[in-house]
Design a protein that fits this description.
The chain is built from 14 helices and 2 strands. It is mainly alpha-helical and 310 residues long. Strand 1 and strand 2 form a beta hairpin.
Length: 310
C-alpha cells in the first residue's frame, strides 16, 4: 500500500497548476482505500503482486474517485469524509472536468501498457454502475419495487465495483480466466453483503452512537428492510407506508414511524440473514483457493465489511 501511494500520486501529476492543486486535495481526503486492498490481496493469493497489479489498483482508484466526484455534483453534496467536496470549493464545471480527467488518466494508463484485459474489467464496472444508478432513479418514482429488483440495483451499483477489484487483481497475475471469473463472483457476493450492511445502518442497527438514521428514507431509496416490510403487510397498509415515504420523507416524526415499523416487522433480521448468506457465499469461493496469509486476510476483510459499525 505504501508503494501504491507513491505510484498513485505519480499517476495524478499534471503540468496544469490548477489540476495539481486539486489533485493534492483529492489525495489528502482519501478514505480507507479498501478497493486497492482487495486488488492487492487477490493478486497475492492468485500468484503474487506484479507491476501490473499496481496499475490495476490505480485504475480502480481513479475510477472510484471519478465516480465520487461526479456523484457529489449530481447530489449537490458539499461534504465528503469530513472534507469539503470538490464542487463546494471549485464549483460544478471544474468538478465534472476533474472526474473526466481521472477517467481519461485511467484509460491512458491501461492503453499505454497494453492492459486491455484490465481495461475491459474496469469499463464493464463503469457501465454497470451507471445502469444501477439509473435503474434506482427509475424505480424511485413508484417506491414499490420487488426484492429481485433491489438486488439487481445493488449488484450493478455497488457490488460491480468490488467485483472488478477482485477480478482485476486476479487478472493482473496472469492466472487463468476460470479463476478470474471465480474472483469476480467472490467480489460480487462480498459487495452485496457490504451494501446490505450499509442499508441496516439506516435503521440504527449496530451503528455508532450519534450517527443519523433514516437517510435512505429521506432520499426515498428502497432498501431491503423496508422492502421486506412492504411485502408482509396488506394492500392498504402498504399504500400508507409508501405514502409516508413519498410525501413525508422530510418529516422526522414520520421517518421515525417508518423506522419503527421496519424494526417491528422482522425486516432487520431478514436483511441480516441475506447479508450473512452472501458473506458465506463469498467465503466459500475463497476456500477453493489454497490457504495462504492473503486468503485469510481476504476472508477477514469480508467479515469486517459485515460487522463494521460505520
Amino acid at each position: 500500500m505504501d508503494a501504491f501511494e507513491g505510484k498513485f500520486r505519480e499517476a495524478l501529476q499534471s503540468k496544469v497548476s490548477l489540476l495539481d492543486i486539486i489533485m493534492r486535495y483529492v489525495l489528502k481526503r482519501k478514505g480507507k482505500q479498501m478497493r486497492p486492498l482487495f486488488v492487492f490481496l487477490t493478486a497475492e493469493m492468485c500468484g503474487g503482486v506484479k507491476e501490473s497489479s499496481y496499475r490495476a489498483a490505480i485504475l480502480i482508484e481513479l475510477l472510484h474517485t471519478a465516480t465520487l466526484i461526479h456523484d457529489d455534483v449530481v447530489d449537490d453534496s458539499h461534504e465528503r469524509r469530513g472534507f469539503f467536496s470538490l464542487n463546494a470549493l471549485w464549483k460544478n464545471k471544474i468538478s465534472v472536468l476533474i472526474g473526466d480527467y481521472l477517467l481519461a488518466k485511467g484509460l491512458l494508463l491501461a492503453i499505454d501498457h497494453d492492459d486491455f484485459a484490465l481495461l475491459k474489467i474496469v469499463s464493464t464496472a463503469t457501465r454497470q454502475m451507471s445502469e444501477g444508478e439509473l435503474l434506482q432513479i427509475e424505480k424511485a418514482r413508484f417506491l414499490d419495487i420487488k426484492e429481485e429488483v433491489y438486488f439487481e440495483i445493488i449488484r450493478k451499483k455497488t457490488a460491480s465495483l468490488i467485483a472488478s477489484c477482485t477480478a482485476i487483481g486476479a487478472q493482473s497475475t496472469g492466472i487463468g480466466s476460470e479463476w478470474v471469473d471465480k474472483m469476480y463472483q467472490f467480489g460480487e457476493a462480498a459487495g452485496i453483503a457490504f451494501q446490505i450492511r450499509d442499508d441496516l445502518f439506516d435503521y440504527g442497527d449496530g451503528q455508532a452512537i450519534g450517527k443519523p438514521r433514516g437517510i435512505d428514507i429521506k432520499e426515498k431509496k428502497m432498501t431491503l428492510p423496508l422492502i421486506y416490510l412492504l411485502q408482509h403487510v396488506d394492500f392498504f397498509e402498504k399504500r400508507k407506508i409508501i405514502n409516508l415515504v413519498k410525501r413525508h420523507s422530510q418529516n422526522p416524526e414520520k421517518v421515525n414511524e417508518v423506522i419503527l415499523r421496519v424494526n417491528n416487522s422482522g425486516g432487520i433480521a431478514y436483511a441480516k440473514e441475506k447479508m450473512i448468506e452472501y458473506r458465506d457465499k463469498a467465503i466459500s469461493i475463497l476456500h477453493e483457493f489454497p490457504e495462504s496469509p492473503a486468503r485469510i486476510a481476504l476472508e477477514q476483510l469480508v467479515i469486517y465489511t459485515t460487522e463494521r459499525n460505520k
